[in-house]
Amino acid sequence: MKSNSLASAACKLSLFLLVSASCALAQERRPVHYSGLINDYTPANVNGGPYEMHAQWTLDLHPEWAREWRTADFALDMTMSDYGTTAGVLDATKGGQNPHTHHITLTNATITWNMDSCPTFSPATKSGFQLNGTVKMVTGNGSNATFETDPPSSTLQVCVTGGDEVSYSNISLVFLGPATTHFGPQAIHGVVRRPEQIIERW
Asked: Which of 131, 133, 128, 132 is nearest to 114 (CA)?
């Protein structure tokens, strides 16, 4: 009888430890979510430009084993319009012209835990991470963008950086490839709206 009780207790303890370990691992591997805004301008020499760019974006970091974040998904929803003109000259009294939308995604992109080649800021940001990869989708008013190949071939660098008070405060986007004819090759700047700290990596 006593041996049966001990065996039962051992089984229950093993089950408890297994469930506890599974729960702890699940908590440890919870994705990290960021979101924010983009408000910037294209250069004047892009096709149809210059444009105003206003967007909302999200970034989800996916944890792997040992609490390390290795890949991420980035999504951006943008509105754009150019400036009103009179006789070919920019006219501040007129509203935006040629309004349109873009949806841009970068999926399963590898995370690089440094700021090498990221755009600089003043005051300078001090730490951060970046994603680089070929975009999965670039739309124009809901269809494949006319400036993009099908499937897309433009690449995108996404840098998330920050300082002493807020570790992740800034975001910048840099396109290479066909998308530069519309967005430009320069850094596009924005803000992290709800910064969330990343659990320390091993």
From this structure: 128
Q: How far apart are CA 145 and CA 139, in angstroms?
A: 5
* Residue-level pLDDT, tens digit, the chain, 202 residues: 555 555 555 555 454 444 444 444 444 556 789 999 999 999 989 988 889 999 999 999 988 754 567 899 999 999 999 887 788 787 778 878 899 999 999 999 999 999 999 999 999 999 999 999 999 999 999 999 999 999 999 999 999 999 999 999 999 999 999 999 999 999 999 999 976 655 444 3
Under a CB-based contact definition with an 8 Å cutoff, are residues 183 and 147 in contact? no
Domain boundaries, the chain: 1-30, 31-192
pTM, full prediction: 0.80
Residue at token pair 């998330």? 160
Q: What are phi and psi of 137, to 5 degrees?
A: -150, 135
Identify any residues that bridge with 159 across adjacent strands, giving them in sequence order.
Answer: 130, 172
DSSP string, 13-75: HHHHHHHHHHHHHHHHT--EEEEEEEEEE--TTSTT--EEEEEEEEEEEEE-GGG-EEEEEEE
